[in-house]
Design a protein that fits this description.
heterodimer, A: about 230 residues, alpha/beta, six-stranded mixed β-sheet, four-stranded antiparallel β-sheet, globular, B: about 250 residues, mainly alpha, about 80% helix, about 0% strand
Chain lengths: ~230, ~250
Amino acid sequence: MNALEIQDVWKYYGDFPALRKIALKVTPGSTVALLGRNGAGKTTLLRIIAGLSKPSQGGVRVLGADVRQDSTRRRIGVLGHGISLYDELSATENLTLYARLYGLDEPRKKAHEWLERTGLERVRDGLVREFSRGMRQRLAVARAFLHDPDVLLFDEPFTALDDRAIAVLQNLLADAHQRGRTIVMSTHQLKEALVLATHVALIRRGEIAYSGIRTQEMVDEPGWLYRTYEEN
Amino acid sequence: MQASEQSAAAFGTEKAAGISFAQYTRLVWTIAAKDLRSELRTKEAINASVAFSIVILVLFSFAFDPSSEQLEEFSGGLLWLVFSFAGALVLNRSFARETQNDCLDGLLASPAPPSALFLGKSFANFILLIVVEFVSLPVFSLFYNLHWMGQFWPLVLVMLLGTWALTMIGTVFSALTVNLRLRELMLPTLVYPLMIPALMSAMTLTTDFLSGVPLGPDNMIWIRLLVAFDFIFSAVAIAVIDTVLVG
């Protein structure tokens, strides 16, 4: 069984096809770097995989099931463009809220555990509106990992993070990968993403221009993929 | 699918596909508590709504003679118009609050059923609207020289049923209009025409009770209409909310 199976997905915004016949299979335990220029369709594809948007044609199965099933969503962690955190609630209150929505035991304890892991235990009772952009992003990362999901979907996860926070996130992703979790992340930060990735998918104007195993050549020269598949 | 469940069991994260009534109720309360806590911290909607209803009641009192016998006849209509307009301010904020930081995506990506999210938000709106109404009632009594304590419990019953109708329709349309630029205008435009049967019932009953007419066979038909309206629109709202939120 594939962790993720995208079958001929099309997505139209009006007459404009944002995604065209996207087909992709991701095996369990893979870390996929979803690459592409601005407007290529990465975010649209991630939203469809996460069940936040419906494809115009085609279908997506996550862990062998429809993503809109409650039991499937329980096994997915999503970090989108927005941090999905409430400004007027504290860091602990935000994570406790999500722990309850995911049906975790001891939600408050779980929230504190993740605040510690992301280096935010010092500000755990501070309101999110008082946080810096980097702290908000770290809290959003904690929210995505909180319920120990089998599939992680990250859209630009390194945005707004400083070097230390990038290292924390890379460690979390590496740890998740080691424990057999499947990760799909879209990013413009090629270097950070390619170090972690086992597979690469490049989207060009709504189509998959390349998909395959990440090679050492890509890591050594991150611009190679774009030069080879984007500029032709 | 079987393989998926085995794999999930190995990871220790899978729960039963369905959730129990107790779990569902907890999810509804979690969302309602979150919305109420957010509102208590910002007081954005409640302050605007209470201030609006008091100002409108005071302004209308200048237009009508409080000693006039006619006042009793349109008291119910006046009160429910104020409740409806003030309610729109609360309902507009309901899903608009979720657009900040894309919080709605976080909720929809969670395993909580969309109907539980909707009911949680509806209960929070209902509580806020009831607070606005109970603050407005003494002001109404003071400026219009009407006594509502005589028929207190029947009046409370009408307020609960009428407010639930407003909450159900208002919360669905709050979700539907959340991404529109003119949502503040669109929400009342869409909600009030649908509310006509419920508003008619609530206005008639409120006028009766403020005039001292007791609850009896004559006005029971309006209570039945309100109950049927609440039941039908709650069922319809719960049935369509997944499509409204995800498309």
